[in-house]
Amino acid sequence: MNYKSNNSDHLHCVYFLNGAWYAWQEKAKAQAVPDYTITLQRNGEVFKFDLLDLLRRSLKSSKVLKTRENWSHVSKMVGIGSTTATLLCQKMNVDPDGTLFVASESGAEG
């Protein structure tokens, strides 16, 4: 197949590539800022819950040994590794190395 490109085809191709690039950028932005919300409905009533808040409540209300670091408690309860558990603690503004599972006002240092 012999294809000859002229200038207008070339510009269209660049525009298409740029259009595809911009579409990809928007998808990447949506992934970069994930939505941690779950929406449930019952009898026409809508309930919205923040997943990190639900996790924080669950971890706070569970039996926590005060001799165990917060990251370890998160790791055991959620079934993830220490690095991910530490990052999750920081995301919830909880000190990963502390033994009291409470959110700090200024956020976890890390």
Q: Explain this structure to me?
A:
With 110 residues, this protein is mostly helical. It has two domains: 36 residues; 60 residues. It is 51% helix and 11% strand. It contains four helices and two strands. Strands 1-2 form a two-stranded antiparallel sheet. It is flat, with a radius of gyration of 23 Å. The N terminus is likely disordered.
Supply Rg: 23 Å
Principal-axis shape equals: flat
Sketch the topology as an H/E string, one letter per element: HEEHHH
Per DSSP, the total helix count is 4
Structural class, from helix and strand content?
Answer: mainly alpha
Q: In the residues, how many domains can be counted?
A: 2
Mean pLDDT: 75
Number of E strands: 2
User: What does the largest sheet look like?
Assistant: 2 strands, antiparallel
Taking pLDDT < 50 over at least 5 consecutive residues as the criterion, the unreliable ranges are: 1-6, 9-16
Q: What separation lies between the terminal Cα atoms?
A: 59 Å
- Strand fraction equals 5-15%
Helix content: 40-55%
Kindly report the spatial arrangement of strands forming the biggest sheet: 1-2
